[in-house]
Predict the 3D structure of the following.
Amino acid sequence: MKTKKHWYDYLWIASTLYLLLGFINILFAWLGLLCFFIPLIISIVKGNKAYCNKYCGRGKLFNLLGNKLGLSIKRECPTILRRQWFRYSFLIFFLTMFGNMIFVTYMVFGGSRELVNVVKLLWTINFPWNFSYNNSISPWIAQFAFGFYSVMLTSTVLGIITMIFFKPRTWCVYCPMGTMTQAICKVKNHGKE
Ligand code: SF4
């Protein structure tokens, strides 16, 4: 039986567009803040994971690639990824890297550091990204965009790798946003969720 499609079933298009727009103009990376704040707001206000369950375009993209397009070999996710200590360690690591990105943006804002037109993949590999920035705006705004796009690209690449070798939405098991919203829901619902 066919299940009825909803508008949010197509949000994988938004996630794909986001990645493509980063090649055209890096300033579009600022839009990624929506994927940061909306899940937090939903979990704080509603105390549930509606964002993960319904609205996350990235989760839907992995589902599409892995299930519909058959790009996943669908092995069970390694137990270590499910462990609480691993998920929280990864969250702390992710937030530390995020904080470092904000600090670099602040230094560029203060003039103590120059803008670096690179996208950093997996926190280590630098890709020159001059083609998507035309020096038309304050350097700190561009620096944040490069940093934030690096975070989004890195998490997508990690998600795609785990999608291929394990079940399609394995990234969701250790996704920092998922861990954060789950923790918020737990506190909000007094440990019930
Ligand atoms: S766990 Fe992360 S990637 Fe998965 S649905 Fe939630 S926010 Fe999206």
Remarks:
- The pocket of iron/sulfur cluster is lined by residues 39, 52, 56, 58-59, 171-172, 175, 177-178 (CB under 6 Å).
- The first strand starts at residue 118 and ends at 121.
- The chain has a mean pLDDT of 95.
